[in-house]
Amino acid sequence: MATTIEFSPETEERLDFLASKTGRSREYFLREIVERGMDDLEDYYLSKEVLDRIRTGKERVYSSAEVRRDLGLDD
Question: What's the start-to-end Cα distance of the chain, in Å?
Fold first, then answer.
């Protein structure tokens, strides 16, 4: 999928510097940034949705005592 992104001149300079010093392409580093950053974005936005459901009472919350009891860990 082709996508166009505009960066600040400073970011472009940093990307160019990194590419020239490592011998890798700008595209390589952009792909790395997106792929590595995707985990963080998913964690943030998906956990935010759960937190919103908890705050509005739409998601059940279990105490540690309930979890230990239900899993039989207190025996």
Answer: 54
Q: How many residues are listed for the chain in this entry? A: 75
- Which secondary-structure segment (H or E) carries 14? helix 9-22
Whole-structure pTM value: 0.57
Using one digit for the tens of pLDDT, what is the confidence trace for 13-72?
A: 999 999 999 999 999 999 999 999 999 999 999 999 999 999 999 999 999 999 999 999
36-39: long-range contacts (C-beta < 8 A, 24 or more apart)?
A: none
Rounded to 10°, the helix 26-55/9-22 angle is 120
Contact 15, 26 (CB under 8 A): yes
Amino acid at position 41, single letter: L
Quote the DSSP letter at residue 59: S
63/20 Cα distance (integer angstroms): 53
Structure tokens at 22: 């490592």
